[in-house]
Design a protein that fits this description.
Distance between the termini: 34 Å
Oligomer: single chain
Helix content: under 10%
Order of helices and strands: HEEEEEEHEEEEEEE
Strand order of the largest sheet: 1-9-10-13
Length: about 190
């Protein structure tokens, strides 16, 4: 969502109060999403074969069905993705990653009549807000200046990147370790018109 707001007050900037309160522009940008679909990998393939940079679990390994980005759940996981801090201090999208890990296996040709499909797990929901503020200073009819400040991640909200669901270890399954947003940054600018 993008908004550009010019307050209608004191647009002519007459008088001391007009110069202080007139000429402002506010432009926030709010971004939000429900979370991308995640898929399982086994880290044994050529890098960059899949979105996650590893071979998808059961993909073309001459043992299981030749399919990308699938794992089969023996027990359906019904929880949503959210940040959980485990006893060892690590962040994870699952409250009990070992229990979820133990419900997964690759689809097996001749036994399973379908694969698990992409997106059995969803990534973290995300949101972020940026903000631009500009003030116009009108000195004369022909001479003016614009001062601006642009905030990236104005609320300094930490958004972690989705994990790679690697079936190598139950201990690291669903572990969150990378920050996906930049810390708050501020950029100033001045433009003079004459």
């Amino acid at each position: 969502m993008l908004l550009v707001y010019h307050p209608p007050f004191y647009q002519s900037q007459r008088g001391l109060l007009g110069h202080v309160l007139g000429g402002w522009t506010f432009s926030p940008i709010f971004t939000a999403g429900s979370g991308a679909p995640l898929f399982c990998v086994d880290n044994s393939g050529v890098p960059f074969e899949g979105y996650s940079g590893a071979q998808e679990f059961g993909a073309a390994d001459n043992i299981f069905i030749n399919t990308d980005a699938n794992c089969l759940q023996t027990t359906k996981y019904t929880g949503g993705a959210s940040v959980h801090y485990l006893a060892d201090g690590t962040a994870n999208i699952f409250a009990n990653p070992s229990a979820v890990f133990n419900t997964l296996r690759p689809p097996i040709l001749g036994i399973d009549n379908r694969s698990g499909g992409l997106g059995q797990f969803r990534g973290l929901p995300y949101w972020n807000m940026n903000l631009g503020i500009k003030k116009n200073f009108r000195v004369t009819e022909r001479f003016s200046a614009d001062a601006s400040a642009n905030f990236v991640n104005v609320l300094n909200h930490n958004q972690l990147l989705d994990p790679i669901l690697s079936l190598q270890s139950p201990a690291s399954f669903g572990q969150l370790s990378t920050e996906g947003t930049l810390p708050r940054t501020l950029e100033f600018g001045i433009r003079v018109s004459f």
